[in-house]
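Researcher: Structure prediction, please.
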Amino acid sequence: MIPGGVEPIAAAVRLQEVTVLSEPAVRGDFDALYAAQFAPMVRLACVTTGSVPAAEDVVQEVFLALLHRPDVREPTAWLRRAVVSRCTSWVRRRRLENRHAGQPEPEPLVPLGPDAIAVRAGLARLRPRHRAAIFLRYYLDLSEADIADALNCRPGTVKSLLHRAHSALREHLDDH
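Model: Predicted structure follows.
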């Protein structure tokens, strides 16, 4: 072998070929994941934020972050966790902005029937984490372990979140 010669360059070219060859497969996997998970993630974000445009923005940001994270082993679980986290931050930021501006929180602009309006109002009163737990459990039909993973907490905490959310919803719906 020649010092600093052909061998290292050939290894670098082989590595580059592998990267280039695997890139479309990764891109295809990402495209398939995006096609399958975009709508459910937007619904999850919308339940938490109360705004479809904000939900779409949050989900786009999360998918962009995922695109730059090739080390993620379970992308769907990672997406749920990231969406919930970013939505919680979004809600906190909006509440702080509204508090400093002296404006009340805007009502979501989603057309609903009379029964759904009462449920939506009850959900709106819940904390973002409680709303996310309810959505993950009853809309996405996730197990307590999967919800715990998405919310980055223990399964016992999920039981507590769901119990408190049910109590608050029951109290609100009994009043209406």
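Model: The two ends are 83 Å apart (CA to CA).
Researcher: Thanks, that helps.
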